[in-house]
Structures are given as structure tokens and as C-alpha cells.
Amino acid sequence: MTDQVSAPVESGRHAIARRMFADDVASRRLGIELLEVGDGCATTRMTVSADMVNGHAITHGGFVFALADTTFALACNSHDESAVAARCDIRYLHPTREGDVLVAQATELRRFGRNGIYDVSVSCGDTVVAEFRGDSRVVRM
């Protein structure tokens, strides 16, 4: 079961994740949209703009990483405990271009103690363009 982004930011299920995203200026400037957040999962979307392409006329990997990282952050903060990245990496599988719409879906693999492991798939249409894995750590904020 997931909450739509229209749920109140101040309280309720997944409040920390929703509040964190509402205050995330960097993600907002990139045009990242929160589609949904649930227990250990999240889905976001971003349209590749002209400012996001590199000299090969393909999406700069840093922007794909930022989308995946934001989605990872939402998923690992969905349990209403503040969490941060302890480690993460990405595999770029297919290039994308200006105007492409990227959708990132994060899934929790494991939670143990203060740690978590999450996978994020980034797709453009039916094609997976990147795979991201992140380790989280619950922290006191």
C-alpha cells in the first residue's frame, strides 16, 4: 500500500520522507516529481531537459544518479526514521536524451538494525537505463 504525494506533509504515514522531499530544493530544481511513497519503496519521475545533456547529446550520468539517489532517499526514510546514504553505486545501461521521461522505482531489499539495502531501477518507457544500489543508515537528526 502506498501514499500518493497529495497526502499531508506534516503528519501521517511516511511523514519524514514526504517532509524531506518537500524541503529538497535540489530535487525540485531538477524537476523531480514524487509519484508515490510506501513502506520501503518510492517512485519518482524526471524529464531530461536541455541543461542535463552532455557533449555527446545524451543525459549526463550525474542527473540520472541524482534521480536514483533521491528515490533511494525517499524509500529509506519511509519508515519514519531519519536515514542517510552510507554507500551507493550505479550501473548505466542505456543512454537517454533531451525530452526523455525517466521513472525511478526504489525497492527495499533488507533492513537490519540501523542499516538498509535498496535497489533503484531507472527506466525510460519499457527500457531500464540504470540500476542503482544504496545502503542506508538510520541517524539521529
Automatic annotation (TrEMBL):
Keywords: Hydrolase. It holds the Pfam family 4HBT. GO terms for molecular function: acyl-CoA hydrolase activity. It comes from the Bacteria. Residues 58-129 form the Thioesterase domain. InterPro entries: Acyl-CoA_thioesterase_PaaI, HotDog_dom_sf, PaaD, PAAI_dom, Thioestr_dom. Signal peptide: none annotated. Belongs to the thioesterase PaaI family. This is Thioesterase PaaD. It comes from Gordonia aichiensis NBRC 108223.
